[in-house]
Design goal:
mainly alpha, 9 helices
Length: about 260
C-alpha cells in the first residue's frame, strides 16, 4: 500500500511540475509559481518537446541520478534499520541465540531488498510519467535493451548506497542523525567529489575519486548505450562500497552494546 502511494505521489509531483513549467513558458502563469523557475535558456522551447528530446530513459536518468531516489532510500533505510534498535527488535533477535554476524547480515540483506524496492518504485514512476508526457514513440527493441541494462546497474549501485546508509545507521543509531547524514551525502557529496576531481586534474594527478564514489557513479550512469568500461567501473565501485560498509558495520555491531 505504501509503495503504491509512493508511486502515485511521484507521478503526480512530476506531472504537476511539467504542467506548471509548460504554462510558465506559454505565459499563462508567472515564472516562479510553485517554486518552479524556467531558465531563460529554455524560455523559447516547449517543455514537452524538450522532454521528447530527452526521452523516457533520460527522464529515468534524471530521477535516479539527481538524488531523488537517494533521498527515498535514505529515509526508508534509516526508518527500517534504526527502528529495530528503538523498538528492541535487534536486542530480542540477538537474545534468541543468533550470532551477531547473522543478525547484522539479516539487517544488511533486508536493507538491500528495501533499496531495490525504492529504486524500482522511482524507475516505475519515471516510466509512467514518461508515457503520460511523451508517449510511446521511442519505445522499441533497443529501448528495452537499454532499459534492462540501466535498471540492472542502478539496482546494483543502489544496493551499495543502501549499504552505506545502513552502516551509518549502525554507527549513529539515531533516526534524525542517520537521516541528516544521509541527506548530506545525497545533496553535497557529489559536488565535493567533483571539486576534488578538478583539483587533482589541475595538479596532473591521474586519479579521479568520482570514478569510485558510489553516488557519483550513480549520477553518471548512462541510460543509453552503456559501454563495458562504465559497467566494469560501476561493478567495481559497488562491490567496493558493499564490502566496506558491511565490514565496518559488522565490526561495530559486534563490539557495541545493542
Amino acid at each position: 500500500k505504501i509503495c503504491s502511494l509512493l508511486i502515485v505521489g511521484i507521478v503526480i509531483f512530476a506531472y504537476v511540475m511539467i504542467y506548471v513549467a509548460s504554462n510558465i513558458q506559454d505565459g499563462k502563469i508567472p515564472n516562479g509559481t510553485g517554486g518552479v523557475i524556467v531558465s531563460s535558456d529554455f524560455a523559447d522551447e516547449n517543455v514537452i518537446d524538450t522532454l521528447k528530446t530527452i526521452g523516457i530513459l533520460g527522464m529515468m536518468g534524471e530521477i535516479t541520478g539527481s538524488g531523488l531516489a537517494g533521498i527515498f532510500i535514505t529515509v526508508f533505510v534509516c526508518i527500517w534499520c534504526i527502528s529495530e534498535y528503538t523498538n528492541g527488535a535487534a536486542k530480542n533477535t540477538a537474545g534468541k541465540g543468533y550470532t551477531r554476524v547473522k543478525v547484522f547480515l539479516s539487517k544488511y540483506l533486508s536493507t538491500a531488498w528495501c533499496t531495490v524496492l525504492m529504486n524500482l518504485i522511482c524507475i516505475a514512476a519515471a516510466f509512467v510519467v514518461g508515457i503520460i508526457a511523451i508517449g510511446t514513440s521511442d519505445i522499441n527493441g533497443l529501448f528495452f535493451k537499454d532499459l534492462l541494462f540501466y535498471i540492472a546497474m542502478q539496482l546494483f549501485l543502489g544496493i551499495a548506497f543502501g549499504g552505506i546508509v545502513a552502516a551509518i545507521c549502525e554507527f549513529v543509531r539515531n533516526m534524525a542523525g542517520g537521516i541528516a547524514i544521509g541527506m548530506i551525502l545525497v545533496t553535497i557529496s557529489t559536488t565535493f567529489v567533483d571539486a576534488v576531481d578538478m583539483l587533482f586534474q589541475s595538479m596532473n594527478i591521474n586519479f579521479r575519486p568520482g570514478d569510485y564514489w558510489i553516488l557519483s557513479v550513480i549520477a553518471k550512469c548512462p541510460p543509453r548505450s552503456m559501454d563495458i568500461n562504465f559497467v566494469t567501473q560501476g561493478i567495481f565501485a559497488a562491490v567496493l562500497w558493499i564490502a566496506v560498509s558491511f565490514v565496518l558495520g559488522m565490526i561495530h555491531f559486534q563490539r557495541k552494546d545493542i
